Fold this protein.
Amino acid sequence: MASPRLLPLLRVTPVLFAVIVVGIFLLHLPLLQLPYFWDEAGYYVPAARDILLTGSFIPHSTVSNAHPPLVMAWIALWWKVVGYAPLVTRVAMLVLAAFSLLGVFRLAERVSNTQVAVAATVCTAVYPVFFAQTSLAHVDLAAAGFVFWGLAAYVEEELLAAALWFGLAALSKETVILVPVALAGWEVVGVLARGSSLRKLWLVGDSPRGLKPTLKQDSYRSAEALRHPKSGTRIFFLLIPLLPLTLWYGYHYARTGYVFGNPEFFRYNVAATLNPTRFVLALAMRVWQVSGYLHLWILTLAMLLAMWMLPPQRGSGAEGKQTERPRIALPLQMLFYVVIAAYVIAMALIGGAVLARYMLPAVPLVIIVAVSTIWRRLQFWRAAVACVALALVVGWFWNPPYGFSPEDNLAYRDYIVLHEDGERFLEARYPMARVLTAWPASDELTRPWLGYVTRPMSVVRIEDFSLEQVLSAAEFRSGPSRPNYEVALIFSTKYEPGPARWDRWRKWTELKSRFFGFHRDLPPAAAAQILGGHIVFSEQRQGQWVAVIEMERGEVQNAEVRMRR
């Protein structure tokens, strides 16, 4: 962690921002020129490109999902000034990630102290999901960053600034409106609880909060130093961010006829998720994602053991007296817990894909509380936090023994490299062939500006490479009045380390298939046999693979004849 001599310097915002930018830029240097990955290629980059080329905030080269356009406009601005390239996109996202980490630091310093803020910011930066998302053109990390700035302003009673930050967060990702709405609801409950013994959980009435020097080396946030506005005023400012989001949805409806995106998007993310069984399963997954996912359990376990087994450490106070290291004030902790609970419950209720990146506004709050607890109770807290950070770094490269999304660590790089190799081979050897494949490779092959091929290829698309889909493709190819294909590009559409012990439970597999789109891709050899071809290219990396299958019976030769003509 940072030396005490450096702590005053780190409070200078431009200096700290520059340090963060340089640090994450160097860490991501090998990743900055990678082509676009998965949802980047499928939605966010096409939407940003539409803003660049047409000035339209409603995408037309992809189906509109009604996501607010702030982050896509930010990317388009960089393209306009610097030029269109994946490198430019990733640098633009690195700047937003650095701003988000600065927000984590500011929030942690306001509720605890500078040492905790440094440690929590480092742990957040190296948390595998945050690290992987840092340079990807997704909206969740940027939205989370605005949330952290909003929470920091709210803690400091800068209510207008908090409304501004929460408004920007909602214009980055619509689901982030959960944060100010949940806090407003908490304020309402606090008003009703003023006469009860639980009133100490709220920042209500005339009870003050703010900055209170308690130890000699630093200043710590407490609940007894600064008067704050009434609950009604706070509720009003917390609800202001609803206005820009409502205006965006009104504009989207006027242009498309849909409020929350196209009907299929709404069905997948809302209508199809409102099932009690699915909610319970998704809730368990969300709890795991905010407390244990990809080695986060080490930090959570360290916090719990410290709370149960160790008394608070003591240090020198302002007048040389020995005092306990203070915890984060209980009302401030409750703000964190309200946000975390709101996200866990809401993201279990909606969202077709239970992606870990959706929880980025909540996970750093868990990290801040955990690091503060370790700092308060462990004498050698720096060593403990360093061990946690090291374990999180290991999570960049280590794939867990359960299914997870490749975008949650550097598995996404393996995916991109595999597709680069397979599609370059395909373009070089079969430039005029029709290619059987699935999304997102179907977009990668037809849109050269995504960075995989130099010119568009003809594609026949299926959903995935499960047995049912491959059998359907084989029938599709043999149909007398249906278009043919000469070659197939198949790949692992999901990361699955192989059948686990719990996968032997048939009911569990059925539940995953029903609620979370689980399927098993056929291995290349089996797919080739069913399709009536042979493998001419294959490659694999840490559980992911890609293969090119050439069809038999002269279809490729016919394609080459067409090419020469």
Q: What stands out?
A: The chain has two domains: 4-408, 411-564. Residues 179 and 317 are 35 Å apart (CA to CA).
